[in-house]
Amino acid sequence: MENVLITICGRAGSKGFKNKNLKIFDGQPLSYYSLSAAQLFIEQHPELHVDVCLNTDSDLLIDVVTKRYPEVTVLHRPEELCGDVVPKMMVYQHSLRQMEALTGRQYENLIDLDITSPLRQEKDVSGAYEMKKSRPELDLVFSVCPARRTPYFNMAKLENGYAKRVIDHHFTARQQTPPVFDLNASIYVFGRKFLLENETGFLWDGKIGMYEMFDTGIIDIDSEEDYRLMEAIAHYLYGTYPAFGIVQANIRKQDRT
Predict the structure, then answer these.
(1) Which InterPro entries match (predicted)?
(2) Closest by alpha carbon to 114, among 35, 44, 49?
């Protein structure tokens, strides 16, 4: 039986959006959406042994998570991994090593579900995982959305006081440019070997696959404005695309049990 580790990672506080990991999103703690998605993934994959851990330095977040999901293993994040410029890769590595030491299991893959991405569909975690499994040459699969703006035409950089193209090219129409994608920071699926051997903290050192998600459903919440906009989008999606409501419905189901 394959062992899979799902990580939920969140620091105490946030300079961009204070205490964002503790926010209530449409009536439920923000972290519950990632935990509900993890729970649904486990139900869909009885052939796997899946452990879930919370990696944090926030006692408040620990209280929120363990109240509803006592089966989640809490990993206390050391101070040296709490800085603003610490690569998140190091937090994933810490999670993997700690959980393997605690459980005695070797995890073939690690799936990280970002707390600030509450609008995954039920299929998305499985879709990203299955892409990683179907392509053994990949070190990592991360989730993306089609980019609404392209660096070929809609972005510029400042160089010596003058606007310059971000990418040097001679295309005359957007239709000529390669398709580009936004990394939406929702789902990461790492292979164990790549994660443990990475010494730079740089995702791009590996061979990467992209799992494409529904674009409107994902905005990385990093400000009060993002948060309010995401709630408005959630209400629209719940009413228009019922599949988006499954993760939230799974949380509410537990309220009734």
Answers:
(1) CMP-NeuNAc_synthase, Cytidylyl_trans, Nucleotide-diphossugar_trans
(2) 35
Find out whether 7 and 111 touch, Cβ atoms under 8 Å: yes
- CB of 111 closer than 8 Å to CB of 5: yes
The first and second tokens of residue 181, run together, are 């994608």
| Residue type (1 letter), 256 | R
Instruction: Tell me how far apart the terminal alpha carbons of the chain are, to the nearest angstrom.
Output: 30
Query: Do 64 and 58 meet the contact criterion of CB atoms below 8 Å apart?
Result: no
List, for residues 46-90, the tens digit of each pLDDT value: 999 999 999 999 999 999 999 999 999 999 999 898 887 888 999
In this prediction the pTM is: 0.93
**The listed CATH number (1.20.1290.10, 1.25.40.10, 3.40.640.10, 3.90.550.10) that belongs to domain 2-146+180-255:** 3.90.550.10
Number of H helices, E strands in the chain: 7, 11
User: 104: phi > 0 → left, psi -120 to 50 → alpha, else beta; which?
Assistant: left
- Cβ atoms of 90 and 203 closer than 8 Å: no
Give residue-wise pLDDT tens across range 145-175.
Answer: 998 888 898 899 999 999 999 999 888 888 8
Domain spans of the chain, in order of start: 2-146+180-255
Mean pLDDT, the chain, integer? 92
* 3-state SS assignment for residue 245: helix
Backbone angles phi, psi at 145, to 5 degrees: -130, 150
Vertex 10: Cα angle to 188 and 205 (nearest 5) = 35
